[in-house]
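agent> call fold_tool(seq_1)
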Amino acid sequence: MTHVYINSKCICVIFDSLKINVLIQGMNPNVFYGKAKTYKAQVAMPPDDSENEDGEINSDAEEEGVVESLQGESEDESEDEVEDEDEETSGVDSPQEGQHGDGSNIVDWFRPYQREKNLNWRTRRTMLPVPQWKGTLPKATYVKHPVQYFQGLLSRSCIQNMIEQTNLYAIQLDPNKPLKVTAAEIEQFFAICFYMSIFGLPGTRMYWKFATRVDCVADTMSMHRWEAIKHYLHLSDNSIQPPVGDPAYYKLYKVRPLLTSLLEKFNEIPMEEHLCVDEQIVPFKGKHPMKQYNPKKPKRWGYKVFVLSDSRGLVYNFEIYTGKIPPCDGLPDIGASRNMLSFTSIIPGNISHKLYCDNWFTSVDLQVIEAKHKIHCVGTVRANRLPGLNFATDNEFKKRGRGAFEERETLVNGVSLRAVKWFDNRPVTLLSSFASANPTTAVERWDKKKKTTVEEWGGVEWGGVDLLDSLIALYRTKIRSRKWYHRLVFHMLNLTVVEAWLLYRRDCRDCSILLKDVLSLAEFKAEVASCLCMEGKATLKRKGRLSLGPCGIIRYDQTGHWPVWVEKKGRCKFPNCSGIVKVHADRNCFLNFHKE
Protein backbone atom coordinates (compact mmCIF):
# COMPACT_ATOMS: atom_id res chain seq x y z
CA MET A 1 0.00 0.00 0.00
CA THR A 2 1.36 3.40 -0.98
CA HIS A 3 0.78 6.76 0.76
CA VAL A 4 1.89 10.09 -0.69
CA TYR A 5 1.93 13.36 1.29
CA ILE A 6 2.83 16.60 -0.45
CA ASN A 7 3.36 20.12 0.84
CA SER A 8 5.26 23.13 -0.51
CA LYS A 9 8.65 21.95 0.72
CA CYS A 10 8.62 18.16 0.96
CA ILE A 11 7.20 15.02 -0.59
CA CYS A 12 6.89 11.96 1.64
CA VAL A 13 6.25 8.61 -0.05
CA ILE A 14 5.45 5.51 2.03
CA PHE A 15 5.50 2.26 0.09
CA ASP A 16 5.03 -0.94 2.15
CA SER A 17 6.67 0.49 5.29
CA LEU A 18 9.52 2.05 3.26
CA LYS A 19 9.42 5.81 3.80
CA ILE A 20 11.19 8.13 1.33
CA ASN A 21 11.55 11.87 2.01
CA VAL A 22 12.34 14.23 -0.85
CA LEU A 23 13.21 17.85 -0.09
CA ILE A 24 12.00 20.21 -2.80
CA GLN A 25 14.78 22.75 -3.32
CA GLY A 26 13.83 24.11 -6.71
CA MET A 27 16.45 26.14 -8.52
CA ASN A 28 17.27 28.53 -5.68
CA PRO A 29 21.12 28.59 -5.61
CA ASN A 30 21.13 29.61 -1.94
CA VAL A 31 19.22 26.47 -1.05
CA PHE A 32 21.26 24.30 -3.43
CA TYR A 33 24.59 25.35 -1.90
CA GLY A 34 23.34 25.08 1.68
CA LYS A 35 23.16 28.81 2.52
CA ALA A 36 19.45 29.11 3.09
CA LYS A 37 17.84 29.22 6.50
CA THR A 38 16.55 26.07 8.14
CA TYR A 39 13.46 24.55 6.53
CA LYS A 40 11.27 22.22 8.54
CA ALA A 41 8.51 19.97 7.30
CA GLN A 42 6.47 17.66 9.48
CA VAL A 43 5.13 14.45 8.00
CA ALA A 44 2.70 12.22 9.88
CA MET A 45 3.37 8.54 9.23
CA PRO A 46 0.17 6.50 9.57
CA PRO A 47 0.19 3.15 11.37
CA ASP A 48 1.06 0.18 9.22
CA ASP A 49 0.22 -3.40 10.14
CA SER A 50 2.02 -4.95 7.19
CA GLU A 51 4.65 -7.65 7.64
CA ASN A 52 8.03 -7.98 5.99
CA GLU A 53 9.09 -10.84 3.79
CA ASP A 54 10.27 -12.94 6.78
CA GLY A 55 6.91 -12.66 8.49
CA GLU A 56 8.26 -10.48 11.34
CA ILE A 57 6.33 -7.40 12.34
CA ASN A 58 8.17 -4.22 11.44
CA SER A 59 9.20 -2.37 14.60
CA ASP A 60 8.81 0.99 12.86
CA ALA A 61 5.04 0.50 12.71
CA GLU A 62 4.46 -0.21 16.40
CA GLU A 63 3.86 3.42 17.37
CA GLU A 64 1.17 5.53 15.84
CA GLY A 65 1.47 9.08 14.69
CA VAL A 66 5.28 9.26 14.57
CA VAL A 67 6.39 12.76 13.60
CA GLU A 68 9.59 13.19 11.61
CA SER A 69 11.39 16.49 11.13
CA LEU A 70 13.53 17.49 8.19
CA GLN A 71 16.00 20.12 9.23
CA GLY A 72 18.82 21.79 7.32
CA GLU A 73 21.90 23.51 8.63
CA SER A 74 22.15 27.24 9.24
CA GLU A 75 25.22 29.09 8.05
CA ASP A 76 26.08 30.47 11.54
CA GLU A 77 26.82 27.03 12.95
CA SER A 78 30.50 26.29 12.75
CA GLU A 79 31.70 22.97 11.41
CA ASP A 80 33.35 22.07 14.70
CA GLU A 81 30.14 22.63 16.64
CA VAL A 82 28.14 20.40 14.28
CA GLU A 83 30.63 17.55 14.47
CA ASP A 84 30.94 17.77 18.24
CA GLU A 85 27.18 17.92 18.69
CA ASP A 86 26.71 14.86 16.50
CA GLU A 87 29.21 12.91 18.56
CA GLU A 88 27.63 13.94 21.84
CA THR A 89 24.02 13.12 20.85
CA SER A 90 24.58 9.74 19.20
CA GLY A 91 23.80 6.60 21.08
CA VAL A 92 22.43 7.99 24.36
CA ASP A 93 18.75 7.22 23.75
CA SER A 94 19.01 3.51 24.55
CA PRO A 95 22.10 2.84 26.65
CA GLN A 96 22.88 -0.70 27.76
CA GLU A 97 24.03 -1.99 31.11
CA GLY A 98 27.24 -0.49 32.52
CA GLN A 99 28.94 -0.43 35.89
CA HIS A 100 30.80 2.31 37.74
CA GLY A 101 33.49 2.09 40.40
CA ASP A 102 31.14 1.11 43.22
CA GLY A 103 29.18 -1.36 41.10
CA SER A 104 26.13 0.85 40.50
CA ASN A 105 24.48 1.03 37.12
CA ILE A 106 25.35 4.15 35.14
CA VAL A 107 22.10 4.01 33.20
CA ASP A 108 20.10 4.05 36.44
CA TRP A 109 21.40 7.47 37.48
CA PHE A 110 21.96 9.01 34.04
CA ARG A 111 18.94 10.31 32.23
CA PRO A 112 19.69 12.04 28.91
CA TYR A 113 18.37 15.57 29.03
CA GLN A 114 16.70 17.26 26.08
CA ARG A 115 19.60 19.02 24.40
CA GLU A 116 19.05 22.55 23.23
CA LYS A 117 21.01 24.52 20.72
CA ASN A 118 22.07 27.00 23.41
CA LEU A 119 22.42 26.73 27.14
CA ASN A 120 21.35 29.56 29.41
CA TRP A 121 24.51 31.07 30.95
CA ARG A 122 24.34 33.62 33.77
CA THR A 123 27.08 35.82 35.21
CA ARG A 124 28.24 34.70 38.65
CA ARG A 125 30.84 36.01 41.11
CA THR A 126 29.96 33.87 44.11
CA MET A 127 32.02 31.06 45.57
CA LEU A 128 30.87 27.46 45.25
CA PRO A 129 31.15 25.21 48.33
CA VAL A 130 33.82 22.56 47.77
CA PRO A 131 32.45 19.05 48.47
CA GLN A 132 34.15 17.30 51.36
CA TRP A 133 35.99 14.11 50.47
CA LYS A 134 34.51 11.16 52.38
CA GLY A 135 37.20 8.60 51.59
CA THR A 136 40.18 7.42 53.64
CA LEU A 137 43.53 5.84 52.84
CA PRO A 138 44.95 2.88 54.76
CA LYS A 139 47.91 3.86 56.93
CA ALA A 140 51.16 1.91 56.57
CA THR A 141 52.72 0.66 59.81
CA TYR A 142 56.12 -0.15 58.35
CA VAL A 143 58.19 0.42 55.19
CA LYS A 144 58.97 -2.61 53.04
CA HIS A 145 62.15 -3.26 51.09
CA PRO A 146 62.23 -1.60 47.63
CA VAL A 147 62.22 -4.90 45.75
CA GLN A 148 59.05 -5.95 47.60
CA TYR A 149 57.18 -2.96 46.20
CA PHE A 150 58.36 -3.84 42.70
CA GLN A 151 57.52 -7.54 43.00
CA GLY A 152 54.11 -6.63 44.38
CA LEU A 153 53.29 -4.93 41.07
CA LEU A 154 55.04 -7.29 38.62
CA SER A 155 53.50 -10.64 39.51
CA ARG A 156 55.17 -14.05 39.34
CA SER A 157 52.54 -15.25 36.89
CA CYS A 158 53.48 -12.45 34.49
CA ILE A 159 57.17 -13.39 34.68
CA GLN A 160 56.32 -17.07 34.20
CA ASN A 161 54.36 -16.17 31.07
CA MET A 162 57.41 -14.29 29.74
CA ILE A 163 59.58 -17.36 30.32
CA GLU A 164 57.20 -19.70 28.50
CA GLN A 165 56.59 -17.42 25.53
CA THR A 166 60.26 -16.45 25.17
CA ASN A 167 61.35 -20.09 25.10
CA LEU A 168 58.51 -20.94 22.72
CA TYR A 169 59.47 -18.13 20.34
CA ALA A 170 63.10 -19.29 20.29
CA ILE A 171 62.01 -22.83 19.36
CA GLN A 172 59.63 -21.51 16.69
CA LEU A 173 62.54 -19.69 15.05
CA ASP A 174 65.04 -22.55 15.33
CA PRO A 175 64.13 -25.85 17.03
CA ASN A 176 67.81 -26.78 17.17
CA LYS A 177 68.73 -23.76 19.33
CA PRO A 178 66.46 -23.59 22.38
CA LEU A 179 67.04 -20.62 24.67
CA LYS A 180 66.06 -22.31 27.96
CA VAL A 181 65.72 -19.03 29.85
CA THR A 182 64.82 -19.22 33.55
CA ALA A 183 62.99 -16.94 35.98
CA ALA A 184 66.30 -15.92 37.55
CA GLU A 185 67.67 -14.88 34.16
CA ILE A 186 64.56 -12.85 33.31
CA GLU A 187 64.88 -10.94 36.58
CA GLN A 188 68.59 -10.39 35.95
CA PHE A 189 67.78 -9.19 32.44
CA PHE A 190 65.39 -6.58 33.88
CA ALA A 191 67.96 -5.61 36.51
CA ILE A 192 70.58 -4.96 33.83
CA CYS A 193 68.04 -2.80 31.95
CA PHE A 194 67.54 -0.77 35.14
CA TYR A 195 71.29 -0.36 35.62
CA MET A 196 71.61 0.81 32.02
CA SER A 197 68.93 3.45 32.59
CA ILE A 198 70.86 4.76 35.62
CA PHE A 199 74.37 4.80 34.12
CA GLY A 200 73.22 5.91 30.67
CA LEU A 201 76.11 4.73 28.47
CA PRO A 202 75.39 5.31 24.76
CA GLY A 203 75.81 1.64 23.77
CA THR A 204 74.75 -1.57 25.52
CA ARG A 205 77.98 -3.43 24.72
CA MET A 206 80.03 -0.75 26.47
CA TYR A 207 78.95 -2.19 29.83
CA TRP A 208 81.06 -5.28 29.12
CA LYS A 209 84.07 -3.61 27.43
CA PHE A 210 87.29 -3.14 29.36
CA ALA A 211 87.45 0.67 29.14
CA THR A 212 83.83 1.27 30.18
CA ARG A 213 83.08 -1.92 32.08
CA VAL A 214 80.37 -1.73 34.75
CA ASP A 215 80.91 -4.54 37.24
CA CYS A 216 77.32 -4.78 38.48
CA VAL A 217 76.26 -5.46 34.88
CA ALA A 218 79.15 -7.50 33.51
CA ASP A 219 79.39 -9.72 36.60
CA THR A 220 75.67 -10.56 36.49
CA MET A 221 75.31 -11.95 32.97
CA SER A 222 77.45 -12.32 29.87
CA MET A 223 76.87 -9.93 27.01
CA HIS A 224 75.90 -12.66 24.53
CA ARG A 225 73.36 -14.18 26.92
CA TRP A 226 71.77 -10.80 27.62
CA GLU A 227 71.51 -10.02 23.90
CA ALA A 228 70.01 -13.45 23.23
CA ILE A 229 67.29 -12.89 25.83
CA LYS A 230 66.55 -9.45 24.38
CA HIS A 231 66.34 -10.92 20.87
CA TYR A 232 63.85 -13.65 21.83
CA LEU A 233 61.89 -11.74 24.50
CA HIS A 234 58.20 -12.43 23.89
CA LEU A 235 54.92 -12.21 25.81
CA SER A 236 52.36 -13.82 23.48
CA ASP A 237 52.18 -16.76 21.11
CA ASN A 238 52.49 -15.59 17.51
CA SER A 239 50.95 -18.80 16.14
CA ILE A 240 47.51 -18.02 17.58
CA GLN A 241 47.45 -14.27 16.97
CA PRO A 242 44.21 -13.27 15.17
CA PRO A 243 44.87 -11.86 11.68
CA VAL A 244 44.11 -8.31 10.63
CA GLY A 245 40.41 -7.98 9.85
CA ASP A 246 39.35 -10.61 12.36
CA PRO A 247 36.89 -9.30 15.01
CA ALA A 248 39.26 -10.58 17.70
CA TYR A 249 42.27 -8.75 16.23
CA TYR A 250 44.03 -6.56 18.79
CA LYS A 251 46.87 -4.21 17.90
CA LEU A 252 48.52 -4.67 21.30
CA TYR A 253 48.31 -8.46 21.23
CA LYS A 254 52.07 -8.86 21.71
CA VAL A 255 52.07 -6.95 25.02
CA ARG A 256 48.55 -7.74 26.25
CA PRO A 257 49.60 -10.12 29.10
CA LEU A 258 51.92 -7.50 30.61
CA LEU A 259 49.34 -4.71 30.28
CA THR A 260 46.59 -6.86 31.81
CA SER A 261 48.77 -7.94 34.73
CA LEU A 262 49.88 -4.39 35.55
CA LEU A 263 46.35 -2.99 35.24
CA GLU A 264 45.04 -5.52 37.74
CA LYS A 265 47.65 -4.39 40.26
CA PHE A 266 47.27 -0.65 39.58
CA ASN A 267 43.47 -0.79 39.88
CA GLU A 268 43.78 -2.23 43.41
CA ILE A 269 45.78 0.72 44.79
CA PRO A 270 43.71 2.95 47.14
CA MET A 271 43.02 6.32 45.50
CA GLU A 272 43.80 9.81 46.72
CA GLU A 273 41.18 12.56 46.72
CA HIS A 274 42.58 14.53 43.75
CA LEU A 275 42.86 12.63 40.46
CA CYS A 276 43.84 13.73 36.97
CA VAL A 277 43.63 12.31 33.45
CA ASP A 278 46.12 13.28 30.79
CA GLU A 279 48.06 11.98 27.81
CA GLN A 280 51.52 10.47 27.99
CA ILE A 281 53.90 9.92 25.08
CA VAL A 282 56.22 6.89 24.95
CA PRO A 283 59.12 8.11 22.76
CA PHE A 284 59.29 6.18 19.50
CA LYS A 285 60.26 7.30 15.98
CA GLY A 286 60.08 3.99 14.17
CA LYS A 287 57.46 3.02 11.61
CA HIS A 288 54.24 1.88 13.24
CA PRO A 289 50.57 2.78 12.68
CA MET A 290 50.03 3.54 16.37
CA LYS A 291 52.70 6.25 16.43
CA GLN A 292 51.25 9.67 17.26
CA TYR A 293 52.47 13.26 17.07
CA ASN A 294 51.79 15.71 19.90
CA PRO A 295 53.62 19.05 19.57
CA LYS A 296 52.78 20.04 23.17
CA LYS A 297 54.73 17.19 24.76
CA PRO A 298 58.50 17.11 25.47
CA LYS A 299 58.74 13.97 23.32
CA ARG A 300 56.54 14.75 20.35
CA TRP A 301 56.66 11.38 18.53
CA GLY A 302 55.65 8.07 20.04
CA TYR A 303 52.86 5.91 21.42
CA LYS A 304 50.04 7.77 23.16
CA VAL A 305 48.95 6.54 26.58
CA PHE A 306 45.98 7.86 28.56
CA VAL A 307 46.81 7.83 32.27
CA LEU A 308 44.68 8.23 35.40
CA SER A 309 46.86 9.30 38.32
CA ASP A 310 46.77 11.38 41.47
CA SER A 311 48.48 14.72 42.03
CA ARG A 312 51.74 12.97 43.05
CA GLY A 313 51.94 10.85 39.88
CA LEU A 314 50.71 7.54 41.33
CA VAL A 315 49.01 5.64 38.49
CA TYR A 316 45.65 3.90 38.94
CA ASN A 317 44.71 3.20 35.33
CA PHE A 318 46.18 3.54 31.86
CA GLU A 319 45.17 2.80 28.29
CA ILE A 320 47.36 2.79 25.17
CA TYR A 321 45.75 4.61 22.26
CA THR A 322 45.33 2.27 19.27
CA GLY A 323 43.11 4.37 17.00
CA LYS A 324 39.59 5.76 16.85
CA ILE A 325 37.76 4.94 20.06
CA PRO A 326 34.41 3.19 19.43
CA PRO A 327 31.37 3.70 21.69
CA CYS A 328 31.60 1.67 24.90
CA ASP A 329 28.98 -1.01 25.45
CA GLY A 330 26.71 -0.22 28.35
CA LEU A 331 27.79 3.43 28.61
CA PRO A 332 26.23 6.59 27.15
CA ASP A 333 27.96 7.82 24.00
CA ILE A 334 28.97 11.43 24.70
CA GLY A 335 31.16 12.02 21.68
CA ALA A 336 34.86 12.73 22.03
CA SER A 337 34.63 12.30 25.81
CA ARG A 338 33.03 8.86 25.64
CA ASN A 339 36.16 6.89 26.53
CA MET A 340 36.41 8.81 29.81
CA LEU A 341 33.39 6.99 31.24
CA SER A 342 34.95 3.55 30.94
CA PHE A 343 38.41 4.88 31.78
CA THR A 344 37.23 6.46 35.05
CA SER A 345 34.78 3.68 35.93
CA ILE A 346 37.26 2.36 38.54
CA ILE A 347 36.86 5.55 40.61
CA PRO A 348 34.67 4.86 43.66
CA GLY A 349 31.48 6.90 43.52
CA ASN A 350 29.63 8.92 46.16
CA ILE A 351 32.74 9.96 48.13
CA SER A 352 33.45 13.23 46.25
CA HIS A 353 36.64 12.55 44.32
CA LYS A 354 38.01 15.56 42.40
CA LEU A 355 38.90 14.82 38.77
CA TYR A 356 41.05 17.13 36.61
CA CYS A 357 41.42 16.75 32.84
CA ASP A 358 42.35 18.72 29.73
CA ASN A 359 40.28 19.87 26.77
CA TRP A 360 40.57 16.50 24.99
CA PHE A 361 38.18 14.98 27.55
CA THR A 362 36.21 17.87 29.08
CA SER A 363 32.61 18.35 27.95
CA VAL A 364 29.28 19.35 29.47
CA ASP A 365 27.88 15.81 29.17
CA LEU A 366 30.89 14.24 30.87
CA GLN A 367 30.75 16.55 33.87
CA VAL A 368 26.99 16.09 34.24
CA ILE A 369 27.31 12.30 34.22
CA GLU A 370 30.21 12.26 36.67
CA ALA A 371 28.53 14.81 38.98
CA LYS A 372 25.48 12.54 39.23
CA HIS A 373 27.83 9.97 40.68
CA LYS A 374 29.50 12.44 43.08
CA ILE A 375 32.71 12.66 41.04
CA HIS A 376 33.43 16.36 40.64
CA CYS A 377 35.35 17.52 37.56
CA VAL A 378 37.30 20.54 36.44
CA GLY A 379 39.28 21.00 33.26
CA THR A 380 40.15 23.17 30.33
CA VAL A 381 37.50 23.07 27.65
CA ARG A 382 37.12 23.91 23.97
CA ALA A 383 34.83 26.82 23.16
CA ASN A 384 32.72 24.79 20.70
CA ARG A 385 31.69 22.46 23.53
CA LEU A 386 29.95 25.29 25.42
CA PRO A 387 26.88 26.14 23.31
CA GLY A 388 25.38 29.57 23.87
CA LEU A 389 28.29 30.90 25.94
CA ASN A 390 29.62 34.31 24.91
CA PHE A 391 32.72 35.53 26.71
CA ALA A 392 34.62 38.67 25.83
CA THR A 393 36.94 38.27 22.86
CA ASP A 394 40.60 37.35 23.23
CA ASN A 395 41.66 40.86 22.23
CA GLU A 396 39.51 42.39 24.97
CA PHE A 397 41.08 40.08 27.55
CA LYS A 398 44.52 41.00 26.28
CA LYS A 399 43.73 44.70 26.75
CA ARG A 400 42.63 44.08 30.35
CA GLY A 401 45.94 42.39 31.09
CA ARG A 402 47.08 39.29 32.88
CA GLY A 403 44.72 38.11 35.61
CA ALA A 404 41.48 39.32 33.99
CA PHE A 405 38.68 36.75 34.10
CA GLU A 406 34.95 36.24 33.54
CA GLU A 407 32.69 33.60 35.06
CA ARG A 408 29.35 32.13 33.90
CA GLU A 409 26.99 29.55 35.37
CA THR A 410 24.40 27.23 33.84
CA LEU A 411 22.12 24.47 35.09
CA VAL A 412 22.14 21.24 33.06
CA ASN A 413 20.00 18.27 34.06
CA GLY A 414 20.00 19.47 37.67
CA VAL A 415 23.78 19.98 37.81
CA SER A 416 25.29 23.44 38.23
CA LEU A 417 28.30 24.08 35.98
CA ARG A 418 30.70 27.03 36.09
CA ALA A 419 32.70 28.25 33.10
CA VAL A 420 35.65 30.59 33.69
CA LYS A 421 37.76 32.36 31.11
CA TRP A 422 40.87 34.16 32.26
CA PHE A 423 43.95 35.63 30.67
CA ASP A 424 47.42 34.48 31.69
CA ASN A 425 49.97 34.21 28.89
CA ARG A 426 46.96 33.55 26.65
CA PRO A 427 43.20 33.13 27.19
CA VAL A 428 42.20 29.87 28.90
CA THR A 429 38.68 28.51 29.42
CA LEU A 430 37.73 26.17 32.27
CA LEU A 431 34.58 24.17 33.00
CA SER A 432 33.83 22.75 36.44
CA SER A 433 31.06 21.18 38.47
CA PHE A 434 32.55 22.20 41.84
CA ALA A 435 35.19 24.95 41.42
CA SER A 436 34.73 28.67 40.87
CA ALA A 437 36.93 31.67 40.15
CA ASN A 438 36.46 33.10 43.62
CA PRO A 439 38.17 33.57 45.94
CA THR A 440 41.11 35.02 44.01
CA THR A 441 44.62 35.26 45.40
CA ALA A 442 47.29 37.89 44.76
CA VAL A 443 50.47 36.42 43.32
CA GLU A 444 53.61 37.95 41.86
CA ARG A 445 54.22 37.17 38.20
CA TRP A 446 57.14 38.30 36.09
CA ASP A 447 56.30 40.51 33.15
CA LYS A 448 58.71 41.38 30.34
CA LYS A 449 58.51 45.06 31.23
CA LYS A 450 57.87 45.00 34.96
CA LYS A 451 57.09 42.75 37.90
CA THR A 452 53.44 43.14 38.79
CA THR A 453 50.91 41.67 41.19
CA VAL A 454 47.83 40.27 39.47
CA GLU A 455 44.73 38.34 40.41
CA GLU A 456 44.92 34.63 39.69
CA TRP A 457 42.24 31.96 39.68
CA GLY A 458 42.51 29.65 42.71
CA GLY A 459 45.05 26.87 42.24
CA VAL A 460 44.14 23.23 41.74
CA GLU A 461 46.05 20.02 42.25
CA TRP A 462 46.59 18.71 38.76
CA GLY A 463 49.67 17.89 36.72
CA GLY A 464 50.22 14.42 38.18
CA VAL A 465 50.71 12.81 34.76
CA ASP A 466 53.28 15.45 33.79
CA LEU A 467 55.09 14.76 37.06
CA LEU A 468 55.01 11.05 36.25
CA ASP A 469 56.49 11.78 32.81
CA SER A 470 59.36 13.72 34.34
CA LEU A 471 60.11 10.91 36.81
CA ILE A 472 60.20 8.28 34.06
CA ALA A 473 62.36 10.52 31.85
CA LEU A 474 65.00 10.89 34.59
CA TYR A 475 66.16 7.28 34.17
CA ARG A 476 64.51 6.03 31.00
CA THR A 477 65.69 2.73 29.52
CA LYS A 478 67.13 3.66 26.12
CA ILE A 479 67.79 0.32 24.44
CA ARG A 480 67.54 0.13 20.68
CA SER A 481 65.59 -2.76 19.23
CA ARG A 482 64.09 -3.82 15.92
CA LYS A 483 60.89 -4.97 17.60
CA TRP A 484 58.33 -2.20 18.10
CA TYR A 485 56.80 -3.71 21.24
CA HIS A 486 60.13 -3.70 23.12
CA ARG A 487 59.77 0.04 23.60
CA LEU A 488 56.41 -0.50 25.31
CA VAL A 489 57.79 -3.34 27.46
CA PHE A 490 60.71 -1.21 28.70
CA HIS A 491 58.37 1.74 29.30
CA MET A 492 56.03 -0.40 31.38
CA LEU A 493 58.96 -1.69 33.44
CA ASN A 494 60.13 1.88 34.10
CA LEU A 495 56.56 2.86 34.95
CA THR A 496 56.37 -0.04 37.41
CA VAL A 497 59.58 1.07 39.15
CA VAL A 498 58.31 4.66 39.46
CA GLU A 499 54.97 3.36 40.75
CA ALA A 500 56.77 1.24 43.33
CA TRP A 501 58.88 4.24 44.41
CA LEU A 502 55.78 6.43 44.83
CA LEU A 503 54.15 3.73 46.98
CA TYR A 504 57.36 3.56 49.01
CA ARG A 505 57.26 7.35 49.47
CA ARG A 506 53.62 7.18 50.60
CA ASP A 507 54.51 4.60 53.24
CA CYS A 508 57.49 6.70 54.37
CA ARG A 509 55.15 9.65 54.94
CA ASP A 510 52.76 7.45 56.93
CA CYS A 511 55.62 6.19 59.10
CA SER A 512 57.09 9.70 59.56
CA ILE A 513 60.45 8.77 58.02
CA LEU A 514 62.81 11.73 57.81
CA LEU A 515 63.24 13.08 54.31
CA LYS A 516 67.01 12.61 54.43
CA ASP A 517 66.48 8.89 55.09
CA VAL A 518 64.11 8.40 52.15
CA LEU A 519 65.70 6.82 49.07
CA SER A 520 65.80 8.89 45.90
CA LEU A 521 64.43 7.39 42.69
CA ALA A 522 67.94 6.49 41.46
CA GLU A 523 68.84 4.84 44.77
CA PHE A 524 65.52 3.00 44.86
CA LYS A 525 65.93 1.74 41.29
CA ALA A 526 69.53 0.64 41.95
CA GLU A 527 68.41 -1.22 45.07
CA VAL A 528 65.71 -3.03 43.09
CA ALA A 529 68.22 -3.93 40.38
CA SER A 530 70.75 -5.17 42.93
CA CYS A 531 68.21 -7.47 44.59
CA LEU A 532 66.98 -8.81 41.26
CA CYS A 533 70.58 -9.62 40.33
CA MET A 534 71.60 -11.41 43.51
CA GLU A 535 68.51 -12.57 45.41
CA GLY A 536 68.53 -16.38 45.26
CA LYS A 537 71.03 -16.45 42.39
CA ALA A 538 74.57 -17.74 42.08
CA THR A 539 77.27 -15.29 41.01
CA LEU A 540 78.64 -15.52 37.49
CA LYS A 541 81.82 -17.61 37.29
CA ARG A 542 84.53 -15.86 35.38
CA LYS A 543 86.16 -17.70 32.53
CA GLY A 544 89.47 -17.12 30.78
CA ARG A 545 92.15 -14.72 31.95
CA LEU A 546 91.62 -13.13 35.34
CA SER A 547 92.79 -9.66 34.29
CA LEU A 548 94.29 -7.75 31.38
CA GLY A 549 97.46 -5.71 31.36
CA PRO A 550 97.30 -1.91 31.07
CA CYS A 551 97.44 -0.22 27.67
CA GLY A 552 100.81 0.87 26.27
CA ILE A 553 100.62 4.56 27.24
CA ILE A 554 99.94 3.72 30.89
CA ARG A 555 102.39 0.83 30.91
CA TYR A 556 105.38 2.96 29.88
CA ASP A 557 104.61 6.27 31.67
CA GLN A 558 107.15 5.48 34.48
CA THR A 559 104.76 6.83 37.13
CA GLY A 560 103.45 5.07 40.20
CA HIS A 561 104.36 1.52 39.18
CA TRP A 562 106.00 0.16 42.32
CA PRO A 563 106.22 -3.51 43.20
CA VAL A 564 104.39 -4.59 46.33
CA TRP A 565 105.06 -7.81 48.23
CA VAL A 566 101.91 -9.91 48.61
CA GLU A 567 101.41 -13.40 49.96
CA LYS A 568 99.15 -14.40 47.07
CA LYS A 569 101.18 -15.36 44.04
CA GLY A 570 100.25 -14.09 40.60
CA ARG A 571 101.33 -14.87 37.07
CA CYS A 572 104.03 -12.68 35.54
CA LYS A 573 102.73 -10.25 32.87
CA PHE A 574 106.11 -9.86 31.19
CA PRO A 575 106.14 -11.53 27.75
CA ASN A 576 108.09 -14.78 27.41
CA CYS A 577 108.18 -15.24 31.18
CA SER A 578 106.40 -17.98 33.05
CA GLY A 579 105.79 -18.36 36.72
CA ILE A 580 105.62 -15.74 39.44
CA VAL A 581 106.97 -12.18 39.15
CA LYS A 582 110.77 -12.18 39.56
CA VAL A 583 112.56 -9.20 41.08
CA HIS A 584 116.21 -10.22 41.57
CA ALA A 585 119.63 -8.68 41.01
CA ASP A 586 120.17 -10.64 37.82
CA ARG A 587 116.60 -10.52 36.58
CA ASN A 588 113.93 -7.87 37.15
CA CYS A 589 110.73 -8.69 35.29
CA PHE A 590 108.98 -5.68 36.83
CA LEU A 591 111.52 -3.19 35.45
CA ASN A 592 111.62 -4.82 32.03
CA PHE A 593 107.80 -4.81 31.82
CA HIS A 594 107.66 -1.00 32.15
CA LYS A 595 110.43 -0.30 29.62
CA GLU A 596 109.81 -0.07 25.90
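agent> call fold_tool(seq_2)
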Amino acid sequence: QRALEAAGHWGVPTMVFAGEPFFGQDRIELLVWRMRRHGLRARDR
Protein backbone atom coordinates (compact mmCIF):
# COMPACT_ATOMS: atom_id res chain seq x y z
CA GLN A 1 0.00 0.00 0.00
CA ARG A 2 2.78 2.42 0.85
CA ALA A 3 4.50 1.75 -2.48
CA LEU A 4 1.25 2.52 -4.33
CA GLU A 5 0.75 5.74 -2.39
CA ALA A 6 4.36 6.80 -2.97
CA ALA A 7 3.87 6.26 -6.72
CA GLY A 8 0.64 8.27 -6.68
CA HIS A 9 -1.64 5.26 -7.19
CA TRP A 10 -4.44 3.97 -5.01
CA GLY A 11 -6.98 1.18 -5.04
CA VAL A 12 -7.02 -2.14 -6.79
CA PRO A 13 -6.36 -3.37 -9.31
CA THR A 14 -3.55 -0.97 -10.09
CA MET A 15 -1.05 -2.12 -12.70
CA VAL A 16 1.86 -0.27 -14.27
CA PHE A 17 3.42 -1.24 -17.57
CA ALA A 18 6.22 0.74 -19.25
CA GLY A 19 5.60 3.56 -16.80
CA GLU A 20 1.90 3.85 -17.68
CA PRO A 21 -0.59 3.22 -14.85
CA PHE A 22 -3.75 1.22 -15.44
CA PHE A 23 -6.35 1.55 -12.68
CA GLY A 24 -9.48 -0.54 -12.42
CA GLN A 25 -10.79 -3.80 -13.77
CA ASP A 26 -12.14 -2.05 -16.86
CA ARG A 27 -8.55 -1.20 -17.92
CA ILE A 28 -7.22 -4.77 -17.98
CA GLU A 29 -8.05 -5.23 -21.68
CA LEU A 30 -6.23 -1.99 -22.51
CA LEU A 31 -3.22 -3.17 -20.50
CA VAL A 32 -3.15 -6.48 -22.38
CA TRP A 33 -3.39 -4.59 -25.69
CA ARG A 34 -0.43 -2.37 -24.69
CA MET A 35 1.61 -5.40 -23.63
CA ARG A 36 0.96 -7.11 -26.96
CA ARG A 37 1.95 -3.94 -28.84
CA HIS A 38 5.28 -4.16 -27.00
CA GLY A 39 5.74 -7.74 -28.28
CA LEU A 40 4.71 -9.67 -25.18
CA ARG A 41 2.80 -12.88 -25.75
CA ALA A 42 0.85 -15.26 -23.52
CA ARG A 43 2.73 -18.28 -22.20
CA ASP A 44 2.10 -21.67 -23.75
CA ARG A 45 0.05 -23.84 -21.45
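agent> summarizing second result for user.
The longest helix spans residues 28-37. The chain has one domain: 2-37.
agent> awaiting next instruction.
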